[in-house]
Input
Amino acid sequence: MINYDNYLNKRLVEVKPSGIRKFFAIAEEMDNVISLGVGEPDFLTPWHIRQQGIDYLEKGSTRYTANAGLIELRQEISRYYARKYLVKYNEKNEVLVTVGGSEGIDMAIRAIVEDGDEILVVEPSFVCYKPIIEVSGGKAVTLTTREEDDFRLTAQALEEAITPRTKALIFPYPNNPTGAIMNEEQLKEIAKVIIDNDLLVISDEIYSELTYTPQGHISIASINGMQERTIVINGFSKSYSMTGWRLGYALGPAPIIEQMTKLHQFAIMSAPTNSQYAAIDALKNGDADISKMVMDYDMRRRYTVDAFNKIGLKCFEPKGAFYVFPCIKSTGLSSDEFCERLIREKKVAVVPGSAFGDCGEGYIRASYCYSINNIKEAINRIGEFVRELENENKG
Output
């Protein structure tokens, strides 16, 4: 018998599986489960974008593109960031089209991390950053954010975590799972610490279009002195409801994008051709679609926050993305226990906050990118569950 432990990458073996997948697996075994667990828009990709994809398929545009992506798409991405976020990129050597934002994160981390490098990771945050850092030989150092600070990274916390081995900061705003955002003044404070300590930033801006404040999203790359230090990761999944099209992009300094493109060339070759043609139309003609989706999400956001507060689960008000992060400490259950009992007893799937880092313990993540009827029914069931727990604790 072969002992496969002798052949497997030990760094990878030591990485824990995603804490999110466990509850999806339970849900798949049950009927009539209402899920608020998946971060996937319930809107269809707008028709004009789908039509563009269909048209190019009919034309037979099914061959590889350049490794970095169609030059027409890279031009549109560059124009988009210039008009939306006031940052200009050269489409020839500062833009890389990737297979979703996830590949962009992977390429960015692997392009800069060497053995022993410390990479600062804001938490709670998306589940992929730490595992990729660790498999790449780096050390992920957690920067804990707190509800009393609106889950924002403070300059003081950043400064205190920096050591001589610190190379970069993973900066995920608007934030998944909390929905927190950073304003311009706060970004300037963070930028000063970054510049003073000669660090890089990987800015995950996949939810940039889904913000609910008048000023909207501000990219840290737009802060004076930061463009040369920032790798921006973004994509089409959330803003245009194009999850299955698997298309994202990275923007950054040419020497870093060159190395990311090299990795992308060997691992992927090029992003899906048909998706790239559709994405050109999304960037050119999709602003109105985004506005409609944001208006709908905003209504669901306000309803969901209010509903959780009414059932006794104090809920932080998110200003971005499409998640709420209510506190469940009052129930006496851990995040994992709460979610497992909820799905088995009430057939509602949410995600334990601990899946997004240890500091997420005592919270759950629920997505409001579902129909309002599903949200209402799910929160009614959660309310019943909370009341039954109260009675259980009294007994």
Remarks:
- The chain has 13 helices and twelve strands.
